[in-house]
From TrEMBL:
The lineage of its organism: Bacteria, Bacillati, Bacillota, Clostridia, Eubacteriales. It comes from the Bacteria. Keywords: DNA-binding, Transcription, Transcription regulation. This is GntR family transcriptional regulator. InterPro entries: GntR_C, TF_FadR/GntR_C, Tscrpt_reg_HTH_GntR, WH-like_DNA-bd_sf, WH_DNA-bd_sf.
Length: 230
């Protein structure tokens, strides 16, 4: 039995349903629960050591993420993570980040926030080929959350936070290579430079390039065989 902890994980919310959704999403993306599998609320509740109510809420969340398909009175069916899903998530990220960088630049960045961005990017740059797979995704996610935090009260930021979280789970098991991580660090540094210079046009251009590169790597490196078959 997997016990779903109730502690708050920074930035991710504290409800049991959210924790169940996180664990279930991880199990689906990692293929511990195979695509096409049928699961029930009772089965997952027993597995995670929770009641059925938060599991049903989690099912609803993952249906909205196209990871589950509800079957009335028969639980849910697990949907495979496909190139189409990854492409759509990255397209949404492109639109949201392009908007958020403009909004954030208008609100302005404190020196403290800029130092935080530089520190997180430096931590990414210091990762070795031995530890980058484990540490890169949470650091990258932290960088992006900080980068748009000046407009954290905007609806677009809330959508962005949910979307990047879903992408983070997928990237955990469908990761790009070490070279892409190094390129991401360089792109982050260019973004920080543009922010420091209050150069909105350059900042928007860098963000768009960054998200397009992420999409390209995600599809060509992780789903190359599926694309060839199609």
């Amino acid at each position: 039995m997997i016990r779903v902890k109730k502690e708050v994980e920074a930035g991710f919310g504290a409800t049991i349903a959210n924790r169940v959704a996180d664990q279930l999403r991880d199990d689906i993306v990692s293929h511990r629960i195979k695509p096409g599998s049928r699961i029930t609320a009772k089965e997952i509740a027993d597995k995670y050591g929770v009641s059925s109510m938060p599991v049903r809420e989690a099912f609803s969340m993952l249906c909205g993420e196209n990871l589950l398909e509800m079957n009335p009175y028969r639980g849910a069916t697990v949907i495979a993570v496909t190139p189409e899903l990854v492409a759509q998530l990255n397209d949404l990220q492109y639109a949201l980040e392009s908007l958020l960088i403009e909004l954030s630049m208008k609100k302005g960045y404190s020196e403290e926030l800029l130092h935080q961005l530089e520190d997180v990017n430096a931590q990414m740059a210091a990762l070795t080929e031995k530890d980058w797979r484990e540490k890169r995704t949470p650091l990258n996610m932290k960088f992006h959350m900080l980068a748009y935090s000046p407009c954290a009260d905007h609806m677009a930021y809330q959508l962005f936070a949910r979307n990047i979280k879903q992408l983070a789970f997928i990237r955990k098991y469908h990761e790009v290579d070490y070279q892409r991580m190094s390129q991401s660090v360089w792109e982050h540094s260019q973004l920080i430079h543009a922010i420091r210079n209050n150069d909105v046009i350059s900042a928007v251009t860098i963000v768009k390039l960054h998200t397009l590169n992420s999409k390209q790597y995600a599809l060509t490196e992780n789903f190359e065989e599926e694309q060839k078959e199609n």
